[in-house]
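Re-run with default settings, no changes from the original entry. Doing this only to confirm the output is reproducible before filing.
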Amino acid sequence: MKNQSQSPETPLLPFSDFQKIAAKVLSVSKEESDEQMQRFQAENPKSKAKKSKVVKSKKAT
């Protein structure tokens, strides 16, 4: 319980440090998401075709 009452008083990170951490996290997550997309497309080749058909039909209407 004491830890909860003290938590608002904990000092925040300097903004520059926060930016560095955020940049690392974003770059890692982007690489992982790219890998997941490639894996998903390799496992489900039809899914991409379905999406492109939907987009075309929307443009036509």
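The chain has one domain: 16-60. Residues 16-60 form one domain.
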